[in-house]
Amino acid sequence: MSDFDKHRSAGYLANHMARVFAHALAERIRPLGLAPGQFMTLIELWREDGLTQRDLVTRLDVEQATMANTLKRMERDGLITRRAHDSDSRARTIHLTEHARALQGPAEAAANAVNAQAMRGMSGAERSDFIRLMTQAIDSLKP
Predict the structure, then answer these.
(1) How far is it, in rounded angstroms, from Cα 138 to Cα 115?
(2) Are 60 and 70 in contact (CB under 8 A)?
(3) pTM for this one?
């Protein structure tokens, strides 16, 4: 008999919560023509346009191949353009299109709605604690 109880496992619950969040976000941003991976990339580019693929890989903690595929789809969908890097001839910088800039408000509103739905019923202090504890757990698992 195992002592493992998935309902008391931080890892199981975090994984389940991530899948539920991702599904809810996907449903909210689908009408905007976005997928969750594109949204996460756009968040970084809305903060700082002109990043390299390597910058995005590092900031989003994803595999190089995953980012390459995401950027290829984003370019196809008219969300980004790539330009030669100013000082590194091997690198290219990624820039938002006007279409992608116009999606920022609606996409962020969709994400805020999912967050509000998930934390409905929590007090302000509970919400703060929840975010703080999740961040602490993430930081504890980083190499």
Answers:
(1) 18
(2) no
(3) 0.86
